[in-house]
Amino acid sequence: MYCAYCGEQLRDDSAFCDACGQRVKNNGEYISGRVSETPVQNPTGRGGDKSMGIFGVILIMAVGIFSLGNIFFMLSSYLHTGKALTYWERLLAGESLTYTDTYTGGYSGDTYVDDTYTGDAGTVDDTYTDDSYTDDAGVVDDTYTDDAGVTDDSYSGDAAVADDSNTDDAVVTDDSYSDTAEDTLVQDEMGVYHIDSPADLASMAENLDGAYVLDSNIDASAYEEGWTAIGTEAAPFTGSLDGQGYSIYGLSSNASVDDSISFGLFGVIQDAQISNVWISGAYYYITAYGSTDQFANVGGIAGEAYSSTITNCYVSGDVTACGDGNSYARAGGITGAVDNGSTIQNCAVSGTVSALCAAVKNAMAGGISGWCNGSSSVVNCADLASISADGSMYDDEQGYAYAAGIVASGEEFEIRGCGVFTDSITSSWLGSIISPFGTQSTNYTSGYVTLSSAETQDNDMYQVDSSQLGDTNYLMNELGWESGFADGFVRLYQA
Questions:
Q1: What is the domain range of residue 50?
Q2: Which of 247, 340, 386, 457 could form a disulfide with 306, with the two C-beta atoms 3.0–4.6 Å apart?
Q3: d(Cα 82, Cα 337) in Å, to the nearest integer?
């Protein structure tokens, strides 16, 4: 009898094969009989040969991988002799590592630490920031400042950081309006500077020939020491400003100087273009004094304008020019004085305009301009402001004083298409509804103006229906005003 598994000849009384250890069957039934005296240890049989083969392959692969890792590590160690190991080299060496950037928000080289705070785009530790405010792109918190220019609530950073009330991606602002102009003013691809804060507005003084636009309403009331006008006689503003219909609120000054002074949003402009600017809540009380001839030229937009154009501008507030000693006082809702072919067009004024001086000089108060000269013109403008001029402010004697709804005094100028709708014009000497001087044509009044003066200069004017002054279509059809100016006047009239 032979073994069915290995073919070994079996003894007749054997129950197990002495060669392979398998239990013997005869006719499908296990045989009861002798057990081998030397049974086979760890028999493999036919299946055992295969199991041993697979185990051998796995063992060989493991040894190979281990050997290759050691070879790689030995080679890397050789190549990096005297150098810091990379992250992967140290990991292969068996170290447990967490990686971090040396600076927040940007990768700056291989630096690895074992205990820190890990984020998705980089890891930051307590050296750089507060634990409670971390993100993938940078770190911001309310108390700390990092090297990238991210700052706290003092808003003192060099980068584009803003507070919640004045947020802009490119402009740094805060509620105190104390940022420097160099840090905030933005110039677009056309070379135009965009004004979005009082600091931006003041920065025009640093570039007097620039082109500027307002991008928002500006609250300038925070200048507690008073506004400093842009441009002087020696260095006038020669650029442009387009207000785009936005308002500048709270410009104020109570300056008194032993010299001539020109004051407004601008001091002196020359070859300049000012348009679409609203000045609201203005308060100017400017005094020039001295023993020699001085001038206090004060206007809502500019103290003096030479060879310039001012269009579609509106001023509401109180404008006062004072001349003490040998000083002239010239006040106007738009300009104190215009000269050299300047043009004021489509402008309107409300509030008060006043000029005061001693008897030795002149006081001139005009709804649009105190003085006009040099073939300049005032076209399609309107006055709603109360006008007063007093030439005896500082002594008992009566000096020259001129008050008028459009232009108080001057030579060689034109007034055309203008309207005077105030209720009061007062002068200690000469008063006129439109102007005592200049070439005049097609001007208007409401008929409700009270003119009070020692002497009066009559003007040719058309009467308008005062009840229609709030009607844009009426102003366009009856007065010939452009739609934009008619709308602006109605807005000022109804304010």
A1: 45-87
A2: 340
A3: 80
pLDDT of residue 52: 47
Rounded Cα distance between 99 and 112, Å, is 5
pLDDT at 291: 80
Q: Provide DSSP, 169-210.
A: SS----TT----HHHH-EE-TTSEEEE-SHHHHHGGGG-TT-
Q: Determine the angle formed by the axes of helices 483-494 and 472-479, rounding to 10 degrees.
A: 130
Alpha carbon of 137 to those of 102, 133, 160, 307: distances in Å? 14, 12, 15, 52
Phi-psi region of 443 (alpha: psi -120 to 50; beta: other; left: phi over 0): beta
- Kindly state whether residue 109 falls inside one of the protein's structural domains: no
Query: How many domains does the chain contain in total?
Result: 3
Shared domain check, 77 and 2: no
Contact criterion met (CB below 8 Å) for 315 and 333: yes
pLDDT, mean over the chain: 77
Whether 441 maps to a domain, the answer reads yes
For residue 133, the model assigns a pLDDT of 38
Burial class (CB in 10 A: 0-12, 13-18, 19+), 158: exposed
Tens of pLDDT, residues 310-331: 999 999 999 999 998 888 999 9
Same domain, 361 and 337: yes
Q: Which residues contact 467 (CB under 8 A, 6 or more apart)?
A: none
Q: Are residues 490 and 446 in the same domain?
A: yes
Clarify whether residues 65 and 35 are in a common domain.
no
Q: Are residues 67 and 2 in the same domain?
A: no
Clarify whether residues 453 and 465 are in a common domain: yes
What is the DSSP code string of 49-118? HHHHHHHHHHHHHHHHHHHHHHHHHHHHHHHTTTSPPPHHHHHHTT---EE--SBTTB--S--EESSSB-
Furthest C-alpha separation in the chain: 160
- Would 283 be classed as within a structural domain? yes
pTM across the whole model: 0.65
Let me know whether 55 and 33 are in one domain.
no
Classify residue 125: in a domain, yes or no.
no
Q: How far apart are CA 229 and CA 15, in angstroms?
A: 122
Q: How far apart are CA 362 and CA 389, in angstroms?
A: 9
**Same domain as 5, residue 68:** no
Structure token digits, residue 44: 């493999």
Element (H, E) at 486: helix 483-494
